[in-house]
Amino acid sequence: MSSIEELMKAAIPRDLLDRAIFRSIPPQPSPPWEVEKRIRERLERGPRVNLDRIFAGGPACPHYVHPVTLYILSRGEFLTAYTPYQPEINQGALQALYEYQSLVAELLGVDVVNAGMYDGASSLAEASLMAVRVKGSKAVLIPSNLYPSYRRVLATYLRGPEVTLVEYSIDERGAPDLGDLEDKGRKIKPSAVILELPTSEGVLHDRLREGIELAHSLGSLAISIVEPTLMALVKPPGELGSDVVVAEGQPLGLPMHGGGNRLGILGIKMDRALLRQLPGRLVGATLDVDGRRSYALILQTREQHIRREKATSNITTNTALNAIAAAVHLSLLGGRGLRYIASLIYERSRLGLEHLRRGGVALKYPNSRHYKNIVYALPPSSDARAIYARVLKEGFVPFSLFSRTERLAQSCFTEVHSPDTIEQFARTLSRAIGEEQ
Amino acid sequence: MRYRQADWDEPLIFELPLRERTGFAPLGEVEVQLVERVLRELGELARESLELPSLSELEVVRHFTRLSQQSFGVDTGTTPLGSCTMKYNPRLAWKMLLSEELAELHQSMLELESSQGVLELLYELQTWFSELTGLPVCSLHPPAGASGELAGVLMIKAYQRDKGRAHKDEILIPDSAHGSNPASAAMGGFRVVRIPTGRDGLVDLEALRFSATERTAGMMLTNPNTLGLFEERVTEICDIVHGVGGLMYYDGANLNGIMGWARPADMGFDIAHLNVHKTFSAPHGSGGPGAGVLCCTEELAEYLPGYVIAQVGGRYVLRRPSRSVGDMTSSLFNLPALIYAYIFILGHGLRGLREAAANSVASTNYFIKLIEGVDGIDLPMAPSKPRMHEVVLSAKKLAEETGVTANDVAKFLLDQGLHAPITYFPLIIEEALMIEFTETEPLEIVELYAKAIKDAIKLARENPAHLKNAPSSTSRRRLDLVRANHPLTLSPSYRVEKRGVR
């Protein structure tokens, strides 16, 4: 150690070396069993709720993660590899990412999907920046009921170029108010119109096609935010002419991990201007010198390591491993399997809505068709945290807060929830709301 | 070393034989009827078909196992990419992440502060990161280093505005900086002013004094820099930038070489990001996800992104800074990567962290000793000075004399079962080979790597064609990158390939 100490002393100026007094980092190493014990103690302190009793909604919800996905992700060749800048030795990761891009392009009905952004919200933000670069107008039109967290991320990213966000309203059935969209659009001439299916509040409406057409008539790009599993059942926005499609990829085989790391899906139709402005990494097919099919990172001159301040984005580390997870998940399910899972989610959402209504929960859109997420109001005088805690004590994770100020809560219903559990949950929740009132 | 990578003619998943099945859920008549009923109900909205492959569980496992065999990570062999800090990723973290308590933890449990144990763990981490940077407040929110950079740049912007200095619209960045720095500054709405590197490999102070003006909002700097040199005059650099009212941003990508020995705050930095997937052992996952941590001075604390965990009356709570630049992701924290960091720090203790930093520096300098004097490869910029976590070599002489480039050397290394270094970065070094072993590589591997580079140089003089044709032990030989990028042959998805829409 002493010669190494000398080395550090030679390299670091004296007045900067060892200035700190460390008080909280344990001075000595701990053996793995003690580290594990320490983590377990912390994990076990929290209430432990089974997956099928978690109903809290939002962009990330409880879904079944197949052990095959976890197994593939545990392969060190994928898990511990760097970005495949050396394609000859990383064909496997490149092919898996190309498969991810291709599978998701098929699902969304678009031509190109990049190799992953951080999450759905950052995908939306980067898509909006891309639209501003392509169209030039410093305004973006968004639905008034966009997830508050998405809106916050969007606002952060738009601080740099100082782009204004303008809202269009949602009608009493939870669908986009196209009249208002048009009025606002004519006034501000936005670079992009953001549309959703389902909406952040979970409403499955039939106005996406018209919304996209309206966006185009305004001279704007249409950016659609979708829930990826639903795309197995409905005509995807790419097929309806949406220029850009973004989604949260967590429903495609990612554990929740407390919010965790996610997968931002970002797809575009084949358009030179959009492709040049696409943020993030992209894998393409080519041939090697023997004429064998191969894969490599393409159009890298868009990226920060080459283009620096002129890059389309600063994104470097992305979510490649989660994109591979999504490829495994989609491959396992296949088209038929995914349509079945999506149908289950559709059915369970209907059941959820019915039981919540029966329990007297103040549904925001009691008569609208929902997919996965359902929003309801908690009584104005109640304490949301107290209700949450009360239901948690009964063994359910009940909701996310959609809006703190309006006391809107959000629950979701997926393939992991059995009809009986849904009924029991709705009963428990309405009782807790009643008792807190 | 003999090496042969697996070489499967594994078809694209779309080209595998379709079997009307799913590897996930059994589909009988009842299930099929449900799908048909839902599609009927959707009416106009319904999608006619979904053409995704349908395979059995075994076929999926086999396909992706074969693909993994055609990939290469730290678990496979040394991956000494400079500035990437490709160290071993402790398996204990993987084990913990599979536990239901973490895998099935919904975000609301943290948002509504029910999972006190997890919040406690994160609070401890915050404290440790704070101690390692010397900056009192940290946010674990940014999902990656570059995301932390953007947040940091926006913090600078907001701070300067609040001080009535909105005219400050420039960020100073050395020409040796990581590309994400200028990209983040530009995304934050700033003009980037490039500061040249002097002949000693350090920031040119004269140029900095000239560029630091009334318009300077801040400066982004990594220390040790990308050449592996400690910026000895960093205190002076900070003084110059502070002198014109600018803030100093620390890019933590290169912290590994000084962890536990020197701290950004003591150098004069106001904001710092850490790359959890580099210094703190979270895996790179073939490109991500990683995690960033952003730390800052008390004065800037209210501008931090996302949430800061605070302890109030024995409970851990999430606090949103009052002047926050906003959220970078709709998630709260990248919990998996942070679990790695927690395990890494506890497993090392302060003593181990310091040893890790010192060993990474020792590896670099041992490697330099081993290749010293080799004809064709130079150590540009201050060759007699010790390097820290990484070293940048130049194969310029070799290229001039033999036509064998840094890229050719890189491809030759792949053939030995050694991952190539970062090549052609930093941009200020011609024919650059940027190498960082980290503390987890045994010294025998460092020796092996040095020998392989020497072999490459010898071969370059004897038989350059051999290097020009490398690699041949990998699952594919050199790729046609012109074809990959040409508008007429560009294939970014199976859909585009199949339909030829370009």
What does this molecule look like?
The complex is a heterodimer of chains A (437) and B (502). Chain A has helices at residues 2-11, 32-45, 67-74, 76-79, 91-108, 120-135, 148-158, 178-188, 208-217, 272-277, 304-307, 320-358, 384-393, 419-436; strands spanning 112-113, 139-143, 164-168, 192-197, 221-226, 244-248, 264-268, 283-287, 293-297, 362-363, 373-377, 400-403, 408-412. With 437 residues, chain A is α/β, with parallel strands linked by helices. In chain A, helix 8 (178-188) runs parallel beside helix 9. Chain A starts with a helix and ends with a helix. The model of chain A has no long low-confidence stretch (mean pLDDT 96). Chain B is built from 18 helices and twelve strands. In chain B, the strands form three sheets. A seven-stranded mixed sheet of chain B has the order 1-7-6-5-4-2-3, sandwiched between helices. In chain B, strands 10-12-11 form a three-stranded antiparallel sheet, covered by helices on one side. In chain B, strands 8-9 form a two-stranded antiparallel sheet. Chain B is of the alpha/beta class and 502 residues long. The longest helix of chain B is centred in the C-terminal third of the chain and has 37 residues, at 335-371. At the A-B interface, helix 1, helix 2, helix 3, helix 4 and helix 5 of A face helix 1, helix 2, helix 3, helix 4 and helix 5 of B.
